[in-house]
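Objective 1b: paired records.
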Amino acid sequence: MWNPDIRQTHNFFDDWASVPDTQVYDNAFKVQWELFLRHVWGEGEYRWDLLEGAKGLQLVDLALKSWKERRWVDVPSLER
């Protein structure tokens, strides 16, 4: 059992392992914007509609409320 009041002799940094950079990830906002522009030019479907955007804003608002009130909040479902 770990006791925070007792000085630890174990060096926890020795347990860390390097994680190799095996995959480069592109900026997600840029990728989504490019998908939208392709859709506008008629080159493909765009799966995120206005309701999905509203869900994103709802989640941000509720996250800020949760942080401000220091409590869990329920996420109600949105309907069209």
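Objective 1b, second protein:
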Amino acid sequence: MADILHLDMVLLIAAAAVATYLTRIGGYWLITRMKTIPPRLDAALNAVPAAVLTTLVAPNFYAGGPEVKIAMGIGFLVGLRFNVLWMLAVGWVIVMALRHTGVF
């Protein structure tokens, strides 16, 4: 059991958790202190979800094989019509089906 828990790893995870919490609560604290949000800040905050999604999707698109690219394309089209859960489910099913059938 002692081999599994290393004190330095536990401390690193705890420090990362504290840093994440402080950045989130700090941003909330700063925004609540503002009487009005400037238009540029509002536009920047509205762009954050798209930026985060891009950083999650782009590396997988370029590193994945053709089955991943096909699934992402079809998932994108499904996402235009349905919610994100359907998009993820359809993309996952397509990747698994293409891999299982041996097409890719």
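The chain has two domains: 1-33, 47-104. The longest helix spans residues 7-33.
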